[in-house]
Amino acid sequence: MLKRFAGWWLAGPATLAVLVFLVLPVVATIATTFGEDGGIFAPYIAFFNSGFRRTVLWRTIEISLATTAISLVVGFLTAYVVSKTPGKLKSLLIIAAVFPLLTGVVVRSFAWLIILGKNGILNNFLVGIGATSEPLPMLYTQGSVIVAMVYLFVPLMILTLVGVLENIPDDVIQASSSLGATPAATFRQVILPLAVPGLIVGAVLVFTGSFTAYATPQLLGGERQMVMGTLMYQRAMVSFDWVGASTIAAIMVVITVTVVLAMSRVARRLNPMAT
Amino acid sequence: MMTSRINPLLILFTVLVYIFLMGPLIIVLGASVSDTTYLTFPPQGLTLRWFENIFEISAFRRTIITSLELAFLATGLALLVGIPAAYALNRYRIKLPSWLSTVFVLPILVPEIVLGFSLLKSVAVGMQTPIFLTLLVGHMLLVLPYCVRVVSASLASFDFSIEEAAVSLGSPPAKTFFTIVLPNVRSGVIAAFILAFITSINDVSTSLFLTGPGVSTLPIQILAHVEQFFDPTIASVSVLLMLLTVAVMAIVERTLGLTFLAK
Fold first, then answer.
1. Would an 8 Å CB–CB cutoff place B245 in contact with chain A?
2. Which of B21, B111, B238 faces A97 most closely, judged by CB atoms?
3. Half-sphere exposure of B160 (CA within 13 A, CB side)
4. Interchain CB distance below 8 Å, B95 and A7
């Protein structure tokens, strides 16, 4: 009997932990947003009726899309060069991408606070060379949040895509060039399509990561650039509006799950290596 | 013929990207040793007093200890339940339903901040659990997917017929697991431990809602400190965390080789 269910005994504790402490609480959180007085969708109607909250949602989407697009381009070009770099230098470049990735979000966002602040390094430099007479207000703008988010996610993108690019067989690239394709044509018509599934994986990681971020928008955007994560914290811990916070949580879960499922379907369809 | 050469403009671009990646961390390092009461770079004068200052602030002393305890316990617990789960998912693949492996993807699908908030509502408030215990549950769930997936990946290349050979020669199953299976997936367990530990120590989003009066974690304390003070203490705490990253990478280098990081 013990032997027959050995698999269940071994997988049981971990499965139970996830079901009891993750699935149940999250389902409970989402459940509290329905069936309130004033109609089943009342909290959602309240959310979308508030101009401020709509702005926050839209701003979060904008920041996440911009971060994803910039990280994709920067990460892909860099990963391409890294994957073509020989031996020792390549390991060094990979280590230099792993290091920031393993350094925490708070530390990496804080660094940009020193750079972009009113008396920060960038402003001191600009005033010093006479490019501007007054320090520019760079902090607490959409731009400052995006720059720090790109900084956060570029290493992840580089590492994801180096793996993908290295898996492209050399024969395919050599076949392309021996058949007369220029390096640019090979890049556009062979390497890029083969990297599409990897690009989608990277894009999903960056988009969902920026959409649900808290520390970076809190430090670099503050109250002026409120996003879904910071709004949720404010609703829950400052206004004690738990239904409002749960509604934001539910919207986050729905958008995250939709993006992940939709994009993994797209990735499967676009994979040129799939048979 | 070797692969075609790379466009020099692309190389220049890559150099700029790496300056972008390293620059801010070097600036933090510089600011942490500056002999000024405000954050500045390049440092003016050299001092280590901001490092001493960390340990003079009791909130930092306490949260450093809490964060370390939390990371060790959460990682330990996650491995304790995660390794058997990973083993079962590989060994009894046919007997177990296919949705079981999906369960361990769920923590990745649910935003960390939503997990933290839900644990606050259902566990901390709902079950009146102590703050540290709730944090431990949150961090355990946060790192469990890494443990299951990384150990699973190294079990996937393990030849279970070796285990069967040991069992058929009379070795008891538990002993076989510890003497045959576990040593073979050693690198996976080390990698899972390191990934989980660093994830826990740096976490903000899950801990955010779960810290409370008297019990907080280091990253949450840093966030609170920055809102009030803008002195080099935070830069020196950041450098401590970077040193931890260096230590972790050194451990990886020693035990698994740095090529492991590339994967």
1. yes
2. B21
3. 10
4. yes
My answer on whether A245 and A228 are in the same domain is yes
Chain A CB contacts of B219 under 8 Å are: 104-106, 215
In a domain, A275, yes or no: no
The answer as to whether A65 is a domain residue is: yes
List b or e across B88-126, with b for residues whose CB sees 16 or more CB atoms inside 10 angstroms: bbbbbeeebeeebbebbebbbbbbbbbbbbbbbbbbbee
Which range of A197-201, B95-99, B215-219 scores highest in mean pLDDT? It is B215-219
A192 and A148 belong to one structural domain: yes
Give per-residue pLDDT as tens, B100-112.
888 888 888 899 9
B86 vs B92: CA distance, rounded Å: 10
Whose tokens are 């030849």? That residue is B159
Average pLDDT on B22-49 reads 88
How far is the alpha carbon of A22 from chain B, nearest alpha carbon, in Å? 7
Q: Which residues of A touch B258 (CB under 8 A)?
A: 91, 95
Residue A163 sits in the same domain as residue A127: yes
Find which of B7, B12, B16, B17 to mutate to test the A interface (most A CBs within 10 Å of its CB). Answer: B17
Question: What confidence score (pLDDT) does residue B1 get?
Answer: 36
B211 CB neighbours in chain A (<8 A) are: none
State whether residue B62 sits within 8 Å of chain A by CB. Answer: no
Mean pLDDT value across chain B: 89
Mean pLDDT split into 10-residue runs, chain A, 275 residues: 74 92 94 79 89 96 97 95 89 92 93 89 88 87 96 95 88 87 85 89 94 96 94 94 94 95 86 60
List the CATH number of the domain containing A93. Answer: 1.10.3720.10
A24 lies in the same domain as A66:
no
Domain co-membership, A250 together with A208: yes
- The DSSP letter of residue B134 is H
Provide the whole-model pTM: 0.91
Query: Which residues form the domain of A148?
Result: 41-270
pLDDT for B2 beyond 70: no
Tell me the residue type at A275: T
Residue A35 falls in which region: left (phi positive, over 0), alpha (psi -120 to 50) or beta: left
Q: Which of B7, B122, B223 sits opposite A215 (nearest CB)?
A: B223
Residue ranges of B 2-61 with Cβ closer than 8 A to chain A: 3-7, 10-11, 13-14, 17-18, 20-22, 24-25, 27-28, 31, 38-41
Q: Is A179 within a domain?
A: yes
Q: What is the pLDDT of residues B126-155, one digit of tens each?
A: 888 999 999 999 999 999 998 999 999 889
Q: What ipTM is given for this predicted complex? A: 0.91
- A25 and A120 housed in the same domain: no
**Per-residue confidence (pLDDT) for residue A186, from 0 to 100:** 86
For residue B148, give the nearest of B202, B108, B175 by alpha carbon.
B108
